[in-house]
């Protein structure tokens, strides 16, 4: 999956490529003419303190290139497309959550009302830094600037989206996932049985799941999660379960454009594809196969700051390449997945 950093045509697109290309030439290739161009055209070359893989340090990515990376990341990331995005003003942030609300009561004449209060608690977010290290040639022809912008934007955006999805769907609390917990592990911990939907006996592969298994998954979320509900699965699950069932008459499928992205719908709910759920056709006994629900109600993704790029000409000196490190800070939290008694906004299907 690869897209243009700045889709479309016209002078505005050309100008954005020019600004991003000259910035990369100045910051990454240390081209003096590009530095002068940036200074003359209002493209800042600002250092980011303590973000470094070499002696040169890191640069804050300018708005044009940053927006391109973020737009592509939003396209590639399944979790980010549907979760609640929370800007973080500091490394540690709390945001309110409303798991319950006020109640209503009948009132008799001249009798006092019963006081009820909204049930509000907090979600704690702690920013974790991730990096994406890529290589680019140390020599660049002037007319290749557009390709360089597309390459850098796509590689970093795809890497960030994949890591965010991995934490949100597979996180097990270890350092591999920045100590984050994902849906696939939470439903297996014994404390969220309402969100754990076990497929029928013998239905331990995508080719054996049936409409009843999927219906039970929908049934496992709270009613408030239905209007904005979505399926979250791998392309293997999509092909071998959803497409198979639709072709056999067990459910209907169509395709719609959602935020500029062609999105399949099954039973009226969008199918959000991620490579971080199982991609195999063989047995998945005891493992999470897919998820369903309202990710906006059930999860939050905290963003700490803008992007930075750092360079190191020494790391791959023998290959005549420059190492480029892109970094971001984020934290994903699955906060409304119910418990052993009450359903939540999200649920997952587990193979028996």
Q: How is this fold's topology laid out?
A:
Blueprint: H1 11-27, H2 32-40, E1 47-48, E2 58-60, H3 63-76, H4 78-82, E3 84-87, E4 92-97, E5 121-126, E6 128-137, H5 145-170, H6 183-186, E7 196-198, H7 211-219, E8 230-233, H8 235-247, E9 253-258, E10 261-266, E11 269-273, E12 288-293, H9 295-298, E13 299-303, E14 308-312, E15 321-334, E16 346-350
Parallel strand pairs: 3-13, 7-16, 8-11
Antiparallel strand pairs: 1-2, 2-14, 4-5, 6-15, 8-12, 9-10, 10-11, 12-16, 13-15, 14-15
Quick tags:
352 residues; alpha+beta; phage-related protein like fold; seven-stranded mixed sheet; 26% strand; globular
DSSP summary: helix tally: 9
CATH topology: phage-related protein like fold
The portion of residues forming beta strands comes to 25-35%
Please write the string of helix (H) and strand (E) elements.
HHEEHHEEEEHHEHEHEEEEHEEEE
The shape, in one word, is: globular
What is the CATH architecture annotation? Answer: Alpha-Beta Complex
What gap, in angstroms, lies between the N and C termini? 33 Å
Main β sheet profile: 7 strands, mixed
Mean pLDDT equals 88
Q: Gyration radius, to the nearest Å?
A: 24 Å
Structural class, judged by helices and strands? alpha+beta
Low-confidence segments, given as residue ranges, are none
Describe the model:
The protein has a single domain, classed as phage-related protein like fold (Alpha-Beta Complex), CATH 3.90.1690. Helix content is 29%, strand content 26%. It has nine helices and 16 strands. 40% of the residues are buried.
């Amino acid at each position: 999956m690869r897209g243009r950093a700045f889709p479309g045509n016209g002078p505005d697109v050309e100008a954005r490529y020019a600004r991003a290309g000259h910035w990369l030439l100045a910051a990454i290739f240390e081209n003096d003419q590009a530095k002068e161009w940036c200074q003359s055209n209002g493209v800042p070359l600002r250092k980011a303190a303590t973000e470094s893989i070499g002696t040169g340090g890191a640069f804050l990515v300018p708005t044009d290139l940053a927006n391109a990376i973020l737009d592509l990341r939003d396209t590639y990331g399944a979790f980010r497309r549907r979760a609640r995005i929370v800007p973080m003003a500091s490394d540690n942030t709390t945001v309110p959550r409303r798991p319950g609300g006020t109640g209503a009561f009948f009132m008799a004449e001249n009798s006092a009302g019963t006081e009820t209060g909204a049930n509000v608690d907090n979600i704690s977010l702690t920013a974790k830094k991730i990096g994406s290290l890529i290589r680019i040639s140390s020599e660049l022809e002037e007319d290749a600037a557009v390709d360089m912008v597309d390459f850098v934007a796509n590689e970093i955006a795809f890497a960030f989206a994949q890591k965010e999805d991995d934490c949100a769907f597979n996180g097990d609390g270890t350092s591999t996932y920045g100590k984050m917990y994902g849906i696939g592990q939470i439903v297996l911990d014994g404390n969220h049985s309402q969100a754990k939907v076990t497929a029928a006996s013998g239905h331990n592969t995508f080719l054996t799941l049936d409409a009843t298994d999927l219906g039970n998954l929908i049934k496992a979320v709270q009613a408030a999660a239905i209007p904005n509900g979505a399926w979250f699965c791998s392309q293997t699950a999509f092909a071998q379960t959803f497409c198979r069932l639709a072709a056999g008459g067990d459910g209907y499928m169509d395709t719609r454009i959602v935020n500029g992205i062609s999105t399949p719908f099954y039973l009226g709910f969008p199918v959000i594809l991620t490579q971080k759920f199982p991609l195999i056709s063989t047995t998945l006994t005891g493992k999470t196969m897919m998820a369903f629900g309202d990710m906006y109600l059930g999860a939050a993704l905290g963003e700490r700051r803008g992007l930075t790029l750092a360079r190191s000409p020494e790391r791959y000196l023998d290959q005549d390449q420059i190492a480029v490190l892109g970094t971001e800070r984020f934290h994903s939290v699955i906060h409304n997945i119910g418990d052993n008694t009450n359903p939540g906004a999200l649920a997952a299907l587990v193979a028996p």
